[in-house]
Amino acid sequence: MRTAADSGRRGATAAALALTGVLGLSGCAGFLVPAGEGEPGPSPSPTSAGAVRATPPNPIDIATPGAPRPGAPTPKAPTPTATGCPSSGLVVTMGPVEAAMMHRAVGLTLTNCGSEPRRVDGYPSVQALDENGDPLPVKVNPGGSYFGPDKGPESVVLAPGKTMRSLLVWVSTPTGGDLIEGDALEIAPAPGLEARTFPLEGSDVRLLDEFNMTGWRTKIAG
């Protein structure tokens, strides 16, 4: 005959086993997440053109005198002056493709080409384009990679002629599916500022899955 004490012990044992099962599932949850290259980025948000861009962990804030604060309507992209420097005073260049252990990356350089200091604090704006110049749904994640971690953007008052750097890395994810063939990259210092278009040359760099990029900094983290 089971006594009340036996029933109490059995109930306690069942509760303990149920709790152990919950904890065991929680501990294994991390192993169910596909492991891609670099640090995880935030969820992407679609743009009106149908492309996909990631929302940076901190608001892009590349300021010029009188520029609106984050949350204000996006201003019209500035136009170049006669000297080739846009009215924002900031211009981006892309270096050659670097390769290491089947990884691909390019260095981006931001230069203050104007005559006044500019405050820089954010990430580049990167968009993959097809052969017709239309946006492609290629995600761009703030994050690190095989080439180095992303320490986030560095807030700097950039003097005329001075530069900052960012690293843009090709990423292949386990759930990426078929790769997308791109023809060029459209890169700007930040959303809303003038972008430049850089052709992608070579079949190995034209096949795209995702990108990781680091924040603008005076030195690339190693």
Account of the protein in words:
This protein has helices at 4-28, 203-206; strands at 44-46, 52-54, 90-100, 103-112, 118-120, 125-129, 139-142, 156-158, 163-171, 180-181, 184-188, 196-199, 207-208, 210-213. The chain has two domains: 1-28; 54-213, Immunoglobulin-like. It is an alpha+beta fold. It is globular. A five-stranded mixed β-sheet has the order 3-4-9-14-7, with no helix packed on it. It has a three-stranded antiparallel β-sheet with strand order 6-11-12, with no helix packed on it.
Write the layout of secondary structure elements.
Blueprint: H1 4-28, E1 44-46, E2 52-54, E3 90-100, E4 103-112, E5 118-120, E6 125-129, E7 139-142, E8 156-158, E9 163-171, E10 180-181, E11 184-188, E12 196-199, H2 203-206, E13 207-208, E14 210-213
Parallel strand pairs: 7-14
Antiparallel strand pairs: 1-2, 3-4, 4-9, 5-8, 6-11, 9-14, 10-13, 11-12
Please supply descriptive tags for the structure shown above.
13% helix; five-stranded mixed sheet; disordered N terminus; three-stranded antiparallel sheet; alpha+beta; 222 residues; Immunoglobulin-like
Estimate the strand proportion. 25-35%
Helical fraction equals 10-25%
C-alpha-based Rg, rounded:
24 Å
CATH architecture of the largest domain: Sandwich
Q: Tell me, what's the shape? A: globular
Distance between the termini: 71 Å
Helix count, DSSP H or I runs of 4 or more residues: 2
CATH class of the largest domain reads: Mainly Beta
Mean pLDDT: 72
- In the CATH hierarchy, the third-tier topology of the largest domain is known as Immunoglobulin-like
Q: Which runs of at least 5 residues are low in confidence (pLDDT < 50)? A: 1-5, 7-61, 63-83
In this structure, how is the largest beta sheet organized? 5 strands, mixed
Order of H and E elements: HEEEEEEEEEEEEHEE
Structural class, from secondary structure content? alpha+beta
How are the strands ordered across the major sheet?
Answer: 3-4-9-14-7
Counting structural domains, the number is: 2
Number of strands: 14
